[in-house]
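Here is one such tokenized protein:
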Amino acid sequence: MANTVTNKPVSANPPIGHPDKNPLFHKENYLLMLAGVIIIVIGMMVMSGGKSNDPKVFDQKEVYSTTRITIAPILIVIGLGLEVFAIFKKSKSS
């Protein structure tokens, strides 16, 4: 068996139109990622709540409210799910 040498030019950059030149994410993916980040931030803000009138008094209704315990984590999980969806979504042209 003899080794054959091919005279193909070696290029560090693939030619134009090559599949490697296509971007990893498209505009729609970035918009979905941005929406996911915004939803996560809203969930964090809802979870942090507001300022207490008297910091020396522990208000159990305020700390353990449905908004902080249920709604905020649901918003965060929805935002994370949207992030995963945006990462895995393929463009229509591909």
About this structure: Helices lie at 27-48, 60-63, 66-88.
